[in-house]
Amino acid sequence: MHTFDHSGMEAGRRLAHQEPVYSVKLLQLLLLSTYWGMQIWVTFISSFVMDNHLNRHTYGFIQSRLVPFYLHLGSACAFFNLTIYAVHHPSDMMNDRESFQIFILFVAVSVAAVNAQWFGQMTSEIMADMHLVEQACGLGQDIGQSSNREAYAKLCQTDAKYRHLSGRLWLYRLLSSLCNLCCIVCNFCSLSYMAENLTAL
């Protein structure tokens, strides 16, 4: 008759909960900082710079290539961050702060994946369809997204297809932006957690 080795199981749990090696900590820091840096750059810097210097269609073309890559790379960083953390923090040995941290990482992975696979992709596709309609009407070469509003408003009034696309673009952009903001907040919480656990600068 076989006996269940509780001591071996406990030893395995302790081993999994041991301080991770330097390379693992470095990898997690690189993943988190890479994702955070991309978020700040794409959300708050590059978008505003391009909006003020590029015409509407050039800006849209670059965004349609840049944003999907950013979203997929971000979701991969979030996934590996969660995996590394979960491996070194067994669920039955986590305290409340560690449980909250793994929840934050899980939310970041889920939201980033939805944004990459659905909202971000739909935004790019709808924008491309709108650009075709605008090109046919001689629009899209004006600098900045906020310039020549009257012409685009008139196009919405006279073209039912464009009006429908514009409404869908507004919705998917809003959803994608909310997902992106959620991931920024999650990564800020993760950075705060790591800062709390630093023993020295």
TrEMBL record:
<dbReference type="InterPro" id="IPR042623">
    <property type="entry name" value="TMEM205"/>
</dbReference>
<keyword id="KW-0812">Transmembrane</keyword>
<dbReference type="GO" id="GO:0016020">
    <property type="term" value="C:membrane"/>
</dbReference>
<dbReference type="Pfam" id="PF13664">
    <property type="entry name" value="DUF4149"/>
</dbReference>
<feature type="transmembrane region" description="Helical">
    <location>
        <begin position="100"/>
        <end position="120"/>
    </location>
</feature>
<feature type="transmembrane region" description="Helical">
    <location>
        <begin position="26"/>
        <end position="49"/>
    </location>
</feature>
<feature type="domain" description="TMEM205-like">
    <location>
        <begin position="30"/>
        <end position="131"/>
    </location>
</feature>
<protein>
    <recommendedName>
        <fullName>TMEM205-like domain-containing protein</fullName>
    </recommendedName>
</protein>
<feature type="transmembrane region" description="Helical">
    <location>
        <begin position="69"/>
        <end position="88"/>
    </location>
</feature>
<dbReference type="InterPro" id="IPR025423">
    <property type="entry name" value="TMEM205-like"/>
</dbReference>
<feature type="transmembrane region" description="Helical">
    <location>
        <begin position="170"/>
        <end position="195"/>
    </location>
</feature>
<keyword id="KW-0472">Membrane</keyword>
<keyword id="KW-1133">Transmembrane helix</keyword>
